[in-house]
Amino acid sequence: MTDRGREWWKTGVIYQIYPRSFQDSDGDGVGDLAGIESRLDHLVDLGVDAVWISPFYPSPMADFGYDVSDYTGVDPLFGTLEDFERLIAAIHARGLKLLLDFVPSHSSDQHPWFQASRSARDDPKRDWYVWRDPAPDGGPPTNWIAEFGGSTWDWDDATEQYYLHSFLPEQPTINWRNPAARAAMLDAIRTWFDRGVDGFRVDAIEHAAPDPEKGDNPVDPDWDGGGGPARAHLGAASKHQPEVFRVVDEMRRLAERYDPPRLLVGEAYGRLEEVVRYYGAEGLHGFQLPFNFLLIGAEWDPRVIAGLVEAYEAALPEGAWPNWVLGNHDRHRIASRAGRAQAGVAATLLLTLRGTPTIYQGDELGMENVEIPPDRVQDPWEKRVPGQGLNRDQVRTPLAWDGTAHGGFTTGAPWLPMDLRPAVTVEAQRGDPASMLNLHRRLLRLRRAEPALTLGDYRTISVDDASFRFARSHGSRRIGVALNLSDRPRPVDLNGATLLSTTGDDALTGDLAPNEGRVVALD
Ligand code: GLC
Ligand code: MG
User: Fold this and answer.
1) Mutate to test the pocket of ligand 1, among 330, 361, 385 (most ligand atoms within 8 A of CB)
2) How far is the C-alpha of 82 from the C-alpha of 412, rounded, in Å?
3) pTM to 2 decimal places
């Protein structure tokens, strides 16, 4: 795309809000738009640049908003369109950008489009979704397994065909190959752009145009049994299909019609070669930022991490801007994966690697997975495939703001149990110089002050079985980062003045303390 100077998102930091769990304003125990508006100062104080809000559109909430029944509205649970207008104005007034979450691959089964589609085989919207006759044996047309378990095909008694869904049966797959459906979806994007949003995070894009004509998916010979039953197959026929890249190309062309162009951050899980294709390949335009999930499930080991960073740097196409993610509303909390003591090292890594970081709500406080008693499970994935460690409720628990009842999140009963450790609230951490919150604030301030940390090159300096060092350079400025992933002291092996230490003592010199991350201005 044309070079229009430096885009904000290259130096910016994105913060993900899971709206059900950020701040409740009306006492129903579920966060909402007015709640977000009342807490924007936290984001300014933290020092992020953009907010991505997970879906708040009208939805039956079978998948907590990722089952959309109206692409351009606001669910009453979260507020009204007026609340949205106030929120976006308040966000822009603080100099922040706003990204929404677009869910292209499926709607809710309650969407009027699907209601029409399933009403009769000759309904004009029949082809807006993916319908097929049974296989010759009467079973589903292909062997595909849905992400949340079971066949991707559900039988419709009334019209005697199967319809496709890549996630829940309540999330029928939209047929992007149908021109009218395609136009309606692009129109929804346009509506939000016209309302002033600065971009979208685009959900589960690899599932946007499955191709049943290709037949069965092959078994994955390397599957280790993790990640849910769908992982048993490779997605040869159902994921990352050529049509998906044409859909992305159209979305990007639309985003480029605005000044400044709107940002598209794409969610696609896949092998590294598959993911980097979403930057644009074979003459098609891609996303500015296809999410890089290499670290979101990685073993917390310096050699593994250094290897992934190098592999990613090497795989990036010409001109592609990198990005990093350690957590989101679907995956285990970083402080639980890496361990409480390592949370500061993880934050240092996320905020000093080359590329746009996305911080998941609560990670700035070191929030951990919260155990969910069986009778309080809400996540449909956990309900369908119990006991495989996939329960996303654990990472979606409400944020605690202060030491009052329910952490100041709600005056009612929170929709999920909360982590109410007194030290894991915004208020408690604001006053503690060594807190995770203040570490994030210091790291973000340093990023802003040091172009080497945003625009600089990346180079690995050294890695061993306990620590990892790398350098970022821009012009004559060279900054070193040393991360101690172990609980014993390690040599720092960088010469220069300390700029930041996760211990809270930014003048620290000498060996790295156990679990320390240090940033140094290299001599
Ligand atoms: C994405 C979302 C996840 C959702 C799924 C289906 O992976 O992040 O929360 O369940 O897509 O829309
Ligand atoms: Mg509420």
Assistant:
1) 330
2) 24
3) 0.98
